[in-house]
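Entry type: protein chain
Record version: 2
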Amino acid sequence: MTPTHLPGRVAIPEQTRGTPSQSHLDRFNSASADDLQRTLLACLRSLRWSRRITDHRPYPTLDALLAASDEAAYDLTPVDLSEALAGETLPALPDGTYSAAHMAMDAAHAAYEAKFGHSFVICLDGLPPEEALDQVLAGIRSRLTNDPEEERVVAAEELRRLARGRLVDALRGAGL
């Protein structure tokens, strides 16, 4: 059975392990601005965020890079946040996910998007893959009780966490 995609746009990152090495960070610091921008935009679809990370190189340590990433994410304007939310893509559900799960996800996501006008995002770093679907459904249902301003704050924090995890994954891949 081939993986199917969730309806709507729910951001669920791939879960990987390991810490990037100093050589990964060195490649990050020495990459061309254009190459790095493409890599960073795959982590968080915000031009302001990616430019800020690029412009403040070199980073002496992974912790310094991640702190800069967090700070840049905290400084996103509402327009930047909307840009980042609009850029989120569909993840694949694991093989064998049954149709009732797809229906539940469809309904929950439709209600979320109707209320808030943007994609649901959630960071599942460290969560076992078999628990992801339940966590996403619980997250959508729980966050539907938020008012729009409160939810934008929560969504911004989830995007920050997603960007951080994706940035570590990009460094680990070191395809710069």
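Comment: Residues 1-9, 12-17 have pLDDT under 50 and may be disordered.
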